[in-house]
Amino acid sequence: MATLARARLETPRLWLRPVAPSDEAAVVAALNHIAVTGWLAVVPYPYSARDFASFQMAYAVPGETFAVDDDEGFVGIIAVEDRTLGYWIAPHRHGLGYATEAALAVLAEHFTHDTSIITSGYFEGNLRSANVLRKLGFVETGRDLKHCRALALDRPHVTMALSRDAFAATRLT
């Protein structure tokens, strides 16, 4: 899959930019909250500077993966990688609508250049992510068990998909 056309995006409250080495302390601090990593599949807990370095080298591709900032600084990570949307927001910024706002920008940019369906999902019980994905137009496509590395167990998981047309329809209502 081609990367998004732009490595930087802006919303009314957020700036999305490439992940930088200077993000290490904020990412490590946020991902050392089980309230974040317990809802993510592949992120280890505890999370170390070495984990961040590995993430930045192997996965944080500009134009696919974005650090999210508000006017006070770093608040999270969002990515469309291999046609899959993933994101997390630091606990001190939960409940402000940042995941939805950042995802709208990333998905709008993606669908400008690629009509492929985007997948995502959430562990059952993660009502925040369920609500974000539904607001974006994602629909449930199945249920399975998925491993949560931070908790070292398989958890019930809801898989979802979003077409370009469904995304556009949610923007009209």
Question: Key terms for this structure?
Answer:
173 residues; Aminopeptidase; 3-stranded antiparallel sheet; 5-stranded antiparallel sheet; globular; 8 strands; alpha+beta
Task: Produce the secondary structure layout.
Elements: E1 9-10, E2 15-17, H1 24-31, H2 34-37, H3 49-58, E3 65-70, E4 73-81, E5 84-89, H4 98-113, E6 118-123, H5 127-136, E7 139-148, E8 153-162, H6 164-172
Antiparallel strand pairs: 1-2, 2-3, 3-4, 4-5, 6-8, 7-8
Structure notes:
The chain has 173 residues and is α+β, with helices and mostly antiparallel strands. The protein has one domain (9-172): 3-Layer(aba) Sandwich (Aminopeptidase). The chain has six helices and eight strands. It has a five-stranded antiparallel sheet, sandwiched between helices. The protein has a three-stranded antiparallel sheet with strand order 6-8-7. β7 and β8 form a beta hairpin. The protein is globular, with a radius of gyration of 15 Å. The two termini are 30 Å apart. 34% of the residues are buried.
Quick summary:
By secondary structure, the chain is α+β, with helices and mostly antiparallel strands. It has helices spanning 24-31, 34-37, 49-58, 98-113, 127-136, 164-172, and strands at residues 9-10, 15-17, 65-70, 73-81, 84-89, 118-123, 139-148, 153-162.
